[in-house]
Design brief:
Helices cover 35% and strands 12% of the residues. The protein has 75 residues and is of the alpha+beta class. The termini are far apart.
Length: 75
């Protein structure tokens, strides 16, 4: 699916000003939206590879088992 820019403004993730912004896909879970192109691509790539963009993304969207494994809390 190709995203279409809806507005111009600051990205809700990186806070870069005056960017074409794209809505996050609902299937991505709890993701800040709208996103600039680089941030949108990071989430798209992470979801395609079944990974997470950063700790906050994993905290909001990973299962307890995935989060524990990522933090090294599982034996």
């Amino acid at each position: 699916m190709t995203a279409t820019p809806k507005i111009i403004g600051p990205c809700t993730r990186c806070r870069q000003p005056h960017r074409p912004l794209f809505p996050a896909e609902k299937a991505w879970g709890d993701v800040p939206s709208p996103l600039c192109s680089p941030c949108w691509s990071k989430y798209a790539d992470a979801r395609a590879n079944k990974t997470y963009v950063d700790f906050n993304d994993a905290f909001d969207n990973a299962s307890d088992e995935e989060l524990s494994a990522g933090l090294g809390l599982t034996p």
